[in-house]
């Protein structure tokens, strides 16, 4: 485990040395503050539009950080020729993969913490309430969803040639799942065989990332998600995360590193 | 080899010609009908496509009115043909049918059933308390206002945006000054709109209790309707009958309250011509005729 945490620690250090997070965080704050300063019919209690914009920016920023950070991990090690010396140490290939995953995932967790603290402060400044448990559920689901994306991108970085192509493909896949994933079965019903069966199979095979998007519940102050379903969702995420990680380990086991 | 002075003179000559050309072209550009320079930032950036975005934001306001419980393009949206926030003002022809509570239908599979715990899955209206069903929180309807304001900014010709905004500002926020302001902004942009005049009359009558201004505004609305109605196509005529019925019945109510019963009967008769429920209005006419008859008959005194 020490080896895994050592690799993860390097990844986290890399994140806070790079400017990506700071730029996205400051842009989010600036946009939200500008939107908050807009006068809407002299009513200072209007807040939900602000929560929506803030959460949208948080989601976009977190996706950008998760995908771009993960996509360059293994290719950068290979380009810098540090992969071979790294593996020459008492560090197995699966440990490297899991370390990289853990580092990226924890780094995403740290960025989410900052973003959600800002979001909480922003909404509390208007609503004068802080539904901590609701925010905890939303942030945790968001973080576990990023875990799936990080694992998927890590697998992609071993399959696709360049980080740019991997990032683009991951953005398209994640965007596609978030926008139409929930409705793919309805789309399938309108198609002819064999396309119908293929689309239906895709519906059941893909990780349903939209399950973790509970922004509407937060924006409109809906009650808590039942804890049983919340836990099941986390288990669902861990399942897909494990599938992608095992896939990455299997691919990396046979991959030439020089 | 040219001296620096030559370059300097050349630069000055270029600057002067640029300034002269700009000064020559500017008035022509301002007079050009296709110029966007006179419009606001949305007009300059988006052009006519802003109307498409305006509709998106208008629907977004209705989504907020339902606290996020809203059909997507994949769901059955028969019960959401007319936005509920507009239908609840009572001044819009409601084309909704079907089950507004269950547009999601029965669960399709385990993923669908599981997923319904992670998004709003119950039909509520903000003016009725929203997800908490807390009627004391009905002023939460304020949350629809940013999107309506944005929609009005993007498409200043959409009459419904002004009337819906003004209705909710007046009814739930008790913000009559802002309602008044948005309706007058609407009138500046759409001077022939009888819908805006109707809403303005309601504001004068119900909030300011100013009978004379309400009467004037509603009667102006009726005149505008009578002028525009014959020019509309049959489908639009069907949609526009409701507003005339509302104008006429409100005028009838106003005249009745003012004690002018014959005029009230005339307005009810005008409403009856365009109403989908003429028998109900006939009941009102009969009631007023009876009242009028009692007023005109000498009071019968008992002999003993």
How much strand of chain A? under 5%
DSSP helical segment count of chain A = 12
In total, the number of strands of chain B is: 0
Report how far apart the termini of chain A are: 26 Å
- What is the number of independent domains of chain A? 1
From the alpha-carbon coordinates, what is the Rg of chain A to the nearest angstrom? 20 Å
Biggest sheet of chain B, open or closed, and with what strands and sense? none
Output the helix-strand order of chain A: HHHHHHHHHHHH
Number of strands of chain A: 0
> N- to C-terminal separation of chain B?
130 Å
Low-confidence sequence ranges of chain B? none
Mean pLDDT of chain B, rounded to whole units? 84
Molecular shape of chain A: globular
Largest sheet geometry of chain A: none
Instruction: Report Rg of chain B.
Output: 27 Å
Q: What would you say about this model in short?
A:
With 258 residues, chain A is mainly α. Helices cover 78% and strands 0% of the residues of chain A.
Structural write-up:
- The complex is a heterodimer of chains A (258) and B (304).
- With 258 residues, chain A is mostly helical.
- Chain A has helices at 2-17, 20-36, 48-71, 73-79, 83-88, 93-127, 132-159, 163-180, 184-189, 195-205, 215-219, 227-253.
- Chain A has one domain (2-253).
- Chain A is built from twelve helices and no strands.
- In chain A, helix 2 (20-36) packs parallel to helix 6 (93-127) and helix 7 (132-159) packs across helix 8 (163-180).
- Chain A is globular, with a radius of gyration of 20 Å.
- Chain B has 304 residues and is mainly alpha-helical.
- Chain B has helices at residues 4-31, 41-46, 50-65, 84-87, 110-115, 145-154, 159-171, 176-189, 194-207, 211-228, 234-257, 261-274, 278-296.
- Chain B is extended, with a radius of gyration of 27 Å.
- The mean pLDDT of chain B is 84.
- At the A-B interface, helix 9, helix 11 and helix 12 of A face helix 5 and helix 6 of B.
């Amino acid at each position: 485990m020490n080896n895994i945490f050592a690799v993860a620690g390097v990844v986290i250090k890399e994140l806070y040395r790079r400017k990506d997070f700071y730029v996205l965080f400051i842009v989010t704050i600036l946009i939200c503050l500008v939107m908050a300063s807009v006068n809407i019919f002299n009513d200072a209690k209007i807040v939900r539009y602000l929560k929506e914009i803030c959460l949208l920016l948080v989601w976009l920023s977190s996706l950008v950080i998760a995908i771009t950070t993960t996509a360059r991990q293994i290719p950068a090690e290979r380009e810098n020729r540090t992969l071979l010396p790294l593996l020459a140490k008492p560090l197995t290939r699966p440990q490297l993969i899991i370390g990289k995953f853990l580092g990226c995932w924890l780094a995403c967790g740290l960025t989410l913490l900052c973003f959600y603290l800002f979001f909480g402060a922003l909404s509390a400044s208007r609503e004068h309430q802080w539904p901590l448990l609701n925010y905890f559920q939303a942030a945790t689901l968001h973080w576990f969803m990023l875990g799936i994306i990080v694992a998927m991108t890590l697998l992609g970085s071993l399959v696709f040639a360049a980080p740019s192509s991997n990032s683009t493909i991951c953005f398209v896949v994640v965007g596609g799942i978030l926008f139409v994933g929930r409705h793919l079965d309805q789309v399938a019903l309108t198609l002819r065989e064999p396309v119908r069966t293929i689309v239906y199979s895709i519906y059941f095979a893909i990780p349903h990332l939209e399950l973790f998007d509970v922004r509407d519940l937060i924006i409109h102050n809906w009650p808590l998600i039942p804890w049983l379903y919340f836990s099941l969702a986390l288990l669902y995420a861990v399942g897909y995360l494990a599938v992608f990680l095992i896939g990455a380990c299997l691919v990396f086991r046979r991959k030439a590193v020089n | 080899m040219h001296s620096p002075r030559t370059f300097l003179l050349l630069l000055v000559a270029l600057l002067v010609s640029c300034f002269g050309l700009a000064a020559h072209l500017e008035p022509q550009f301002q007079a050009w009908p296709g110029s966007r320079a006179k419009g606001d930032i949305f007009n300059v950036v988006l052009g006519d496509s802003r109307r498409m975005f305006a509709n998106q934001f208008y629907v977004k306001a209705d989504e907020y009115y339902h606290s996020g419980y809203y059909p997507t393009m994949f769901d059955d949206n028969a019960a959401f043909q007319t936005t509920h926030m507009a239908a609840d003002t009572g001044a819009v022809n409601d084309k909704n049918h079907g089950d507004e509570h269950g547009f999601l239908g029965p669960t399709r599979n385990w993923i669908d059933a599981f997923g319904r715990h992670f998004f709003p899955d119950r039909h509520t209206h903000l003016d009725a308390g929203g997800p908490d069903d807390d009627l004391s929180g009905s002023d939460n309807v304020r949350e629809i206002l940013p999107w309506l304001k944005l929609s009005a900014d993007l498409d200043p010709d959409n009459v419904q945006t002004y009337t819906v905004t003004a209705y909710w500002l007046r009814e739930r926020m008790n913000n009559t000054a802002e309602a008044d302001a948005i309706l007058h902004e609407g009138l500046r942009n759409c001077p022939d709109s009888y819908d805006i005049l109707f809403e303005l009359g309601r504001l004068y009558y119900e909030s300011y209790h100013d009978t004379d201004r309400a009467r004037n505004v509603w009667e102006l609305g009726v005149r505008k309707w009578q002028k525009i109605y014959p020019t509309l196509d049959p489908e639009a005529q069907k949609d526009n009958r409701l507003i005339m019925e509302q104008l006429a019945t409100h005028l009838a109510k106003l005249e009745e309250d003012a004690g002018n019963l014959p005029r009230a009967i005339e307005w009810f008769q005008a409403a009856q011509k365009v109403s989908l429920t003429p028998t109900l209005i006939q009941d009102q006419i009969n009631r007023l005729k009876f009242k009028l008859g009692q007023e005109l008959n000498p009071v019968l005194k008992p002999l003993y």
